[in-house]
Description:
six-stranded parallel beta sheet, 250 residues, alpha/beta
Amino acid sequence: xxxxxxxxxHIDTSxxxxxxxxxxxxxxxxxPYPDDLVIVTKLGARRGDDKSWIPALSRQELIDGVHDxxxxxxxxxxxxVNLRVGxxxxxxxxxxxxxxxxxxxxxxxxxIRHLGLSNVTPQQLTEAQTITEIICIQNLYNVAHxxxxxxxxxxxxxxxxYVPFFPLGGFTPLQxxxxxxxxxxxxxxxxQVALAWLLQRSPNILLIPGTSSLxxxxxxxxxASLELPANAIAELNVIYKGLAARQPIS
Length: 250
């Protein structure tokens, strides 16, 4: 077994990444898995032949998705499955009872240990909690995109983990002079500052920054020991206020 770097015990994945490739790589690299490793996968989409993302929320698609994840990860039970709904870059209102109920059945069969939600609104969480326990929410959030501020605080009050996707901006990496200035002042990279800001934002936040190399992974991990002073956090608020006002960030 190849060991993970110290402090890494949470992997975010999906069998529709690739598709199948990511889970197969995880299995090849880490199976049998360390006892403390939690692998979180997600369902609700599939890849089209043209590389597009297509909703996959029918009963059979969800059942097939669970079994694909089990097979390609090489496990008998999935630690956590997030139900992914909404649009490509954000949630949309509407009932999620039907697809979630399918996953609850699979949980009752012992194929899933815990359930979470991705790309959802507070109202959809409330609906979901009438059906089953939800242990985590995975939504778009970062230093420049803070629509979920109140949601994060409410989740923290309930002891529910919040896992921001695109913590570094995603398809459009975070860039601002404020981020650069703070990074220089604390002798870190702008991306380390963006991750450190998230870790200091709320104790229920778990990070899933993508990594393209071992050195990139080590760079991300160093953000965990970076403590941003109050004046640096105040400076970073310029990013959000500037975007909210639709004005250039200085």
